Amino acid sequence: MAKVQVGLVQMSCTNNKQENLDKAILKIREAAAKGAQIVCLQELFTSLYFCDVEDYDNFNLAEAIPGPSTDALQVIAKELGVVIIASLFEKRTAGLYHNTTAVLDADGTYLGKYRKMHIPDDPAFYEKFYFTPGDLGYKVFQTKFAKIGILICWDQWYPEASRITALMGAEIMFYPTAIGWATDQDEETNKDQYNAWQTIQRSHAIANGVPVVSVNRVGLEQNGAMKFWGGSFATNAQGRLLYLGSHENEETKVVELDLSESDFFRKHWPFLRDRRIDSYQPITKRFIDED
User: Fold this and answer.
1) Residue 171 falls in the annotated catalytic set
2) pTM > 0.85: yes or no
């Protein structure tokens, strides 16, 4: 299928898990009504972004995958005939948790999950307290409409992750994400941070010749100390912006991606062909020095 309709759901969340799931389902329905075939939800969409504090009670938000949320979303996927990309807090077993995205095919089939590989530990983003780094490796999923690759938020800064996902055959790369500005920060810093975030992901599209879809939450959280910056976007396989979301508002947008462009751009800008894979062994080192 050369052209695929992709839905991006950018929304604000509350501290009520069921309300957030119900709201996401309504927005999936909205996206499907607009023609979406694949719908991507933002990172950890069933809750507020709880990693701003280290609080053991927050582990109660986690659930099995497959589990209650994927069960509910499988019904919707089958009913609407859409693929759903759902980022959830996974309880793997007692005391072992992951930041995980599940993929549900258009017939409701659970295709599998990707566990976030890169885990941050920054002020207000204390994810290492909650999440064990992924151990499934990088993943692609053959859905009804396209073979898709999933990476999650902090993964977005790493060209190695996107490269491997593309080399596994991903036709579209999706990034569910949760990132924002401290509200006491100046506007110039805000602009620089957002531009860096968008630029690195657009570069993954260019380097790999693959469309990129990034879906971020929006709204004030952390008692007003954090403004999640929205700004969800989709690019074509040459990094050209096809859609750019608001920094302020919830949005449900459907974007058409032409997957045939990947072959065109890879032929004319043959970055994959010209890779010197024989020279890349040093990249497995932490740092290239005498130690």
Assistant:
1) no
2) yes
